[in-house]
Design brief:
210 residues, alpha/beta, 6-stranded mixed β-sheet
């Protein structure tokens, strides 16, 4: 599996990730934040087969290109079950404040502990586990690949900081619990890939926590 990090800019810059199997060219698209046509061109240029779109949470700066790609690629987009109130409410997903309100109504909802397999030709290439990490938002999750020591952590934790908690559904106490009891419970060799910072090993992040 290979990770392609694509910084995307609208109101702010967000890390979008392609998590791809190089042999089959199948994979997942994580947090398509903006610049939908750029992402679509990259997919076509590389011959990638996106099996699913995965959302770490429902803020506008992580979902801006979803509707376009959902239609263009005809693939499902997944979000935690608490994400419905974000996807369908521009105030909660914060898009109401940037002049481009977003409402998404066709999500597939997942729950804590669910497994999301990446399959090609009847073979499971890798599996991502859904870990619910509320605090930044009610629907925040980590997508964890135990086999490859990879975790896509969204805005729960960054290389040098943690997610904001003053937006709708945010809760500082819940965020600290999620970090200390879910993220920090992963193996220390796990590499964290966040929405707005460089990647970092969990071992290193623990040393520098706050």
């Amino acid at each position: 599996m290979k990770i392609f990090t694509i910084p995307l800019s609208d109101v702010m810059t967000t890390n979008c990730y392609f998590y791809m199997d190089e042999e089959s060219k199948c994979g997942f698209l994580i947090d398509p934040a903006a610049e939908a046509e750029k992402l679509f061109a990259l997919i076509k240029q590389n011959g990638w087969i996106v099996k699913k779109i995965l959302l770490t949470h429902g803020h506008f700066d992580h979902i801006g290109a979803v509707e376009f790609l959902y239609t263009a690629l005809n693939v499902p987009y997944l979000i935690h079950q608490n994400g419905k109130q974000y996807l369908q409410n521009p105030t909660w997903n914060l898009s109401a404040y940037n002049g481009n309100p977003i409402i998404l109504e066709n999500a597939t909802y997942v729950s804590n502990g669910d497994s999301i397999p990446l399959e090609s030709n009847g073979k499971v290439i890798c599996t991502l586990q859904v870990l619910h990490t509320p605090g930044h938002t009610k629907d925040s999750v980590v997508y964890y690949d135990e086999q490859n020591d990879i975790a896509f952590v969204g805005d729960t934790i960054f290389k040098d900081g943690i997610g904001a908690t003053h937006f709708p559904g945010g809760n500082e106490k819940e965020l600290f619990y999620s970090i200390q009891n879910v993220v920090f419970a992963l193996p220390e060799q796990t590499i964290l890939y966040s929405g707005h910072s460089e990647s970092v090993s969990l071992k290193q992040r623990k040393k520098n926590f706050l």
